[in-house]
Amino acid sequence: MEQLEVHDIEFLTPKTEDELLDILDRYKEKAKVLAGGSDLLLLIRRNLIARPNYIVNIMEIPSLKYINEDEETVRIGATVTHTEAIENQIINREFPSLVKALKTIGSTQIRNWATIAGNLANASPAADSAPILIALDAKLKIKSAKDEKIIPVEELFVGVKKTILKPNEIIKEIIIPKKRKNFAADFIKLGKRNALVLAVVSAAAGIEMSEDGKIKNIRIALGSVAPTPLRAKKAEDVLRGKEPKMDLIDKCAKVAKEESKPISDVRASAEYRREMVYVLTKRVILNALKELGVNVE
Amino acid sequence: MKKQLLRMRVNGRDVEVYVRPDARLIDVLRDLGYLSVKEGCGTGECGACTVIMDGKTVLSCITFALQANGKEIITVEGLAKNGKLHPVQEAFIEKGAVQCGYCIPGFIMSTVYLLNENPNPTHEDILDALEGNLCRCTGYVKIIEAVKEAASRLKKEA
Amino acid sequence: MSKVIVKEKERVLNVVGHPVNRVDALAKVTGTAKFTADYYVPNMLYAVVKHADIPHGYIKKIDTSEAEKVEGVVKIATGKDIPGVKKVGFPIPDEEVIVQEKVRYIGDVVAIVAAETLEAARKAAEKIKVEYDPLPVVLDPEEAMKEDAPKIHDSGNIITHFKIRKGDVEKGFKEADYVIEREYRTQFIEHSYLEPVAALAIPVGDMIEIYGTVQNPHNARRITSLTLGIPMHKVRVIQPALGGSFGGKDDTANFVAARAALMAKLTGRPVKMVYTREQDMRESYKRHPYIMRYKVGFTKDGRITAMEIKVITNAGAYSSSSPLVLYRSTVQCTGTYEVPNIKGDFYTVYTNTVFSGAMRGFGAPQINFAVESLMDEIAEILGMDPVEIRLKNAYKEGSVTPTGQVLKGHVVSIRDIIKKLAEIADWKKKREEYSKDKGDVRRGIGISCAFRGVSLGAEGADYAGAIVEVFEDGHISITSGISEMGQGAKTVMSQTAAEVLGVPIEYVTFVGPDTSFSPDSGPTVASRGTLMGCGAVKVAAEVVKERMAKYAAKLFNTTYENIVFENGYVYSKKNPENKISFPELAKKCYLDRVNLSAVGWFLAPEIHWDPETGEGEPYFTYTYYADIAEVEVNVKTGDVKVKKVYAMHDPGKVVNPKTAKGQVYGGVAMGIGYALKEEYKIDGKGYPITLNFDKYQIVRAHEMPDVEVYFLENPDPSGPFGAKSLGEPAFDTVAPAITNAIAHATGVRVRSLPATKDKILKLLKEKEERR
């Protein structure tokens, strides 16, 4: 039910980044950043957060809306929506697995207005773009009025719906390193088409092969199986530096299963989720390897 | 709580209205008389509240009204021109896509958006486009037929 | 894709039987159709309810002092403010519009706030403090049946016990070569109509006018009249466009109407109450969860010799239509199969869960799930084909039902349907081909069939009324208490009037239902809308037609038997140049004081059933149907995709093929949800978990299979143009076709709905481990 305290609220629409960061610096916890809006209104309606005194709409700040590339990276601004990223040439060229993941989020209406950065900042255990971004080794530029820092995506999340973001900080941009050759990534969400269903389980893997046919580097990230998007480091260790053989991949997937800590809820039991971690981890690894043209025995 | 000025264009008509800062777009639109915008769930799950904002479909029940400041909104009321139904509306009637009708305005807006972006949608494209709209009566079959019919009508008109 | 297979030669119909466009589609696609929440009147107040904080307990004290301080609050009402009858409901009046002494589930309403704004009303409702003396909570019906269980109502927890005693089960089991026992369970289902319940009550002098999301306006009037203690003619209930119902907008919607009316009476101002989805899901009644235990004896050639059945349904906190739902389950307890020896005990039980009531199918879907699963299990044991086993036992003309009713007087088409549908679906070939699938994705095909007693049967008095009025310009207004909730009632009734009077359907407008001028026709339930509504309209239209025909006969100097009404014209058969347009004739009649308005009264044939002995003829006719479903199951994830559904129905006469197909498609969607994903969940303490569409998931467009619909028409002598029923048949045996297909694909059988990925995967793992 609605929480209706006698409470002052003001809706602010800053036009520049400086204005925005200044507002956040001034009002701190009393202000809440509003991007696409699919999350904030619901959080307030469901009493999941305290009613803010200031709702700060960041969507009218031109300097936050961009998808740029240079030699090494692609940078996605804070207010880029899922639809904008899905339709963007650069993203389709460089990160088809990201496009695949973004398409599974929400519905057309939600994708049209929800921002990728906003979805991350919301830090749902099912934040659907997190696993693939982690697998792609993406980073975030966090900005405040006085400060700026860059962190790997997986370090954003601290707990269920909790990030390291301080009240005066925003995610300014998402930085994704461009694919090296011999790199491929894949993402699967269980029941892919059940997009409005917060994922029952999702998995992403990014694999870089070395010249001698071994896995130079591998990143495995899982969604909805822990309080935060989970980087399955122990599972990665099974394959890192090794030849991609089927029994090893199977072992890797089993380790990922052990690493996951899912809960039972209305959508699925913990047991089922764990089993799906195994199934999906195996699948994304095999898919990525297939894309690389690697034959798995 | 001080009301704030909201300026937007709805169905081609300029609107200036003072709203609560935390007002939802759906409530403001309905207060302005655009009753085609329906609330089915209030959480963005059912899509009955779908309208088009700056050319893109949006869920008005989870959008703050002030987010629409300076923007252009189209609802079902803005589709028929000079008493002539929009081809999407005609198709929905012809194909028997309407039963109780509560979800229909939302489906119509999603369809208008789809066919605007993609005049030749495949069956899969249509399923993707309608994913955010729930219907309990029709089983969707005739709605999908109506979308295809509307696509062909729009092509004839063009 | 669909076909209408017309079996008999009939007179040419010009409107009925044709796929005319819905008469209310234009308003709906332009957004001008008004639903209850679309009504706003000046000086209106907003009302919000306060629901119970605990699922079971005595109300010690209600403190509204803080709530009253909220600015904008005009009136707060509690149970003591009800001037009239406190307990309402049918058949057992145990429901309360506002509970006074005791809360029995978390959705009970303990107070209502009316305020100048919605925000103020909500704020105030939250500030109402209620003190309770909690009572122990019982959520499981079998627990509630025990002697020492906490009593929900003083009358004891077992509401109704129906029996079937046919033949001699012990003898039947002795004759059997096999005897098996199985238990099946089904879940709470939420109607999930897209429009949440709402009402707007407007005082006009000593009258109350109510607009409400009420499936049965006359019942809303009854409840309001009782609650407010005012006579029925002072309560006017108007049903605007109704955003879906599926049986779910009776009790709860009537209470909302009565509550709005009460606040209107208390404040002297119009009061509007619109539920949020969460409030609606918390309070409104659900489909009964069932526990079904079947002990079946059968011979080695597949003939069923005996069934011993125990069914326990969870009625929840109030009885609502539980005894009536149980009644249908009882008299249809062996599905569409003839069983000579039956011992059946059927119980419906109070608990502290949300209360259960009417929902599309009304006690048949659960039984169909059990019986249709059982048939496949029997087939598996015998190594028989599921179609063969059904043909071995299915009803035919002269078969005797569990209540001793002999099926006659109508075409018992189930065998015909099973055979035809199996052929259309290429059953034999697919059954064999799919069993060979090896990989991760396995295909399966399953069949399920059912029959359904048409209309209310012994559930209530079965009648309907309609008024047909021809205006001076030849256009026609019709009305009936039978209501439109999306199924197309207004359209088929308009078609009926147009057909009888020989005019295009554009001449006809359906108005109402409005209790001030629409005849009470009982509830629009039991798939009786077309049968009873069109029946009544036909009677009324024929009366008016006869008067106009007699007038035309005078004009043309011939006898009235010679007069033909066709395509908007009226002419003499013998001398066709003696012709006049229908509007011209209407004008002449009008000017010559001919009575162009008539009330039609339509009664369903008499039936009788003795609840003591379980014997009788509970329905005057039956409809038959079957579904075949094809699925793909991923054995690694348990994910099920329904790829194809074939549905064949015998609704007697398809009055409108377009809307009829729409019903079947909608029924399939609902059936998939029932089979695979829908479940309204309550936690161990009695608090609901699934309160919106994020957690309670209904089928979306991309989950629909390809559906082929077939109608096999066997016109019934009782119905207008031979029509019987379709609304519930469209849904009530879809789920078992799917679960049977899953069993075929995977070799494992889910015996409790929904058949989630979780359950399927678990069963598959257990099967692996056993090997």
Please, could you describe this protein's structure?
- The complex is a heterotrimer of chains A (297), B (158) and C (771).
- Chain A is of the alpha+beta class and 297 residues long.
- Chain A folds into 3 domains: 10-57, Uridine Diphospho-n-acetylenolpyruvylglucosamine Reductase, domain 2; 63-177, Uridine Diphospho-n-acetylenolpyruvylglucosamine Reductase, domain 3 (2-Layer Sandwich); 185-191 and 201-291, CO dehydrogenase flavoprotein, C-terminal domain (Enolase-like, domain 1), CATH 3.30.390.
- Chain A is built from 11 helices and 14 strands.
- The termini of chain A are far apart.
- Chain B folds into 2 domains: 4-75, Beta-grasp domain (Ubiquitin-like (UB roll)), CATH 3.10.20.30; 87-157, DNA polymerase, domain 1 (Orthogonal Bundle), CATH 1.10.150.
- Chain B contains 5 helices and 5 strands.
- In chain B, strands 2-1-5-3-4 form a 5-stranded mixed beta sheet, with helices on one face.
- In chain B, a hairpin with a 2-residue loop joins strand 1 and strand 2.
- Chain C folds into 3 domains: 2-33 and 463-603, 2-Layer Sandwich (Aldehyde Oxidoreductase, domain 4); 36-136 and 194-283, Aldehyde oxidase/xanthine dehydrogenase, a/b hammerhead (Aldehyde Oxidoreductase, domain 3), CATH 3.90.1170; 363-457 and 610-770, 2-Layer Sandwich (Aldehyde Oxidoreductase, domain 4).
- Chain C starts with a strand and ends with a helix.
- The relative contact order of chain C is 0.13.
- Classes of the chains: A alpha+beta (297), B alpha+beta (158), C alpha+beta (771).
- Chains in contact: A-B, A-C, B-C.
- The A-B interface holds A 7-11, 13, 34, 37-38, 40-42, 44-45, 51, 55, 57, 59-60, 83, 103, 106-110, 112-113, 193, 195-196 and B 1-2, 4, 20-22, 24, 42-45, 47, 50, 53, 56-59, 62-64, 66-67, 69-70, 110, 113-114, 127-129, 131-133.
Q: Based on helices, strands and strand pairing, what is the structural class of chain A?
A: alpha+beta
Which structural class do you get from the secondary structure elements of chain C? alpha+beta
Chain-averaged pLDDT of chain A: 91
Share of residues in strands of chain A: 15-25%
The side-by-side strand order for the widest beta sheet of chain C comes to 4-8-2-15-12-13-14
Report the sheet-strand fraction of chain C. Answer: 25-35%
- Estimate the helix proportion of chain A, in percent: 25-40%
Low-confidence stretches of chain C: 1-9
Shape of chain C: globular
* Count of alpha and pi helical runs of chain A: 11
Instruction: Please provide the ordered H/E string of secondary-structure elements of chain A.
Output: EHEHEEEHHHHHHEEEEEEEEEHHH
Q: Which quaternary structure do these chains form?
A: heterotrimer
What is the radius of gyration of chain C computed over CA atoms, rounded to a whole number of angstroms?
27 Å
Instruction: Report the end-to-end length of chain C measured between terminal Cα atoms.
Output: 43 Å
Beginning-to-end CA distance, first to last residue of chain A: 56 Å
Sheet with the most strands, sense and barrel status of chain A: 5 strands, antiparallel
Instruction: Let me know the number of strands of chain C.
Output: 31
Q: Mind telling me the CATH superfamily name of the largest domain in chain C?
A: Aldehyde oxidase/xanthine dehydrogenase, molybdopterin binding domain
